[in-house]
Design a protein that fits this description.
Mean pLDDT: 90
CATH class: Alpha Beta
CATH architecture: Alpha-Beta Complex
Oligomer: single chain
Largest sheet: 2 strands, antiparallel
Helix content: 40-55%
Order of helices and strands: HHEEHHHH
CATH topology: Sufe protein. Chain: A
Number of domains: 1
Shape: globular
Number of helices: 6
Number of strands: 2
Strand order of the largest sheet: 1-2
Low-confidence stretches: none
Radius of gyration: 15 Å
Strand content: 5-15%
Distance between the termini: 31 Å
């Protein structure tokens, strides 16, 4: 599914939840339904900076697509980071690089996060984009 389609689906899903507390409860429930990262991945190599909570993100690249999984010791960070990882997962690196998630502010996600959480999640998105940039296909010069 393209990132444009994922964006449309997320806007519909999150806009349907009018109350910001219920919206975050929904994200927390989605985050806690995912299996936690194995302890072997909860290391400094995968740890995101800028957030008071511990947040880890493990990227991978398979069949020309980027994949991301995350975990956190904070339920809300786990939920929002999981949303970002799900959003960008299974996308072509070129699509990841040119797409941003500023639309999340339009559906009431960003404005209810603390400054530290916004910072940590911004670092997560930048790390995702950097990973994608490092996996761009080498263009032929013929």
């Amino acid at each position: 599914m393209s990132l444009d389609r994922k964006k449309e689906n997320l806007i519909v899903e999150l806009s349907a939840i009018r109350d910001h507390q219920h919206r975050f409860a929904h994200l927390i429930a989605k985050g806690t339904s995912k299996p936690p990262l194995e302890s072997m991945y909860k290391i400094d190599e995968f740890k995101m900076t800028g957030c008071l909570a511990n947040l880890w993100m493990v990227p991978s690249f398979k069949d020309g697509r980027c994949h991301f999984v995350s975990d956190s010791d904070s339920a809300i960070v786990r939920g929002v980071a999981g949303l970002l990882c799900d959003f960008y997962s299974n996308a072509d690196p070129r699509e990841v690089i040119k797409f941003d998630t500023s639309f999340l502010a339009d559906v009431g996600i960003n404005q209810h996060l603390t400054a530290n959480r916004k910072n940590g999640l911004g670092n997560l998105e930048q790390t995702i984009k950097d990973f994608a940039r490092n996996h761009l296909p080498v263009e032929s010069t013929q």
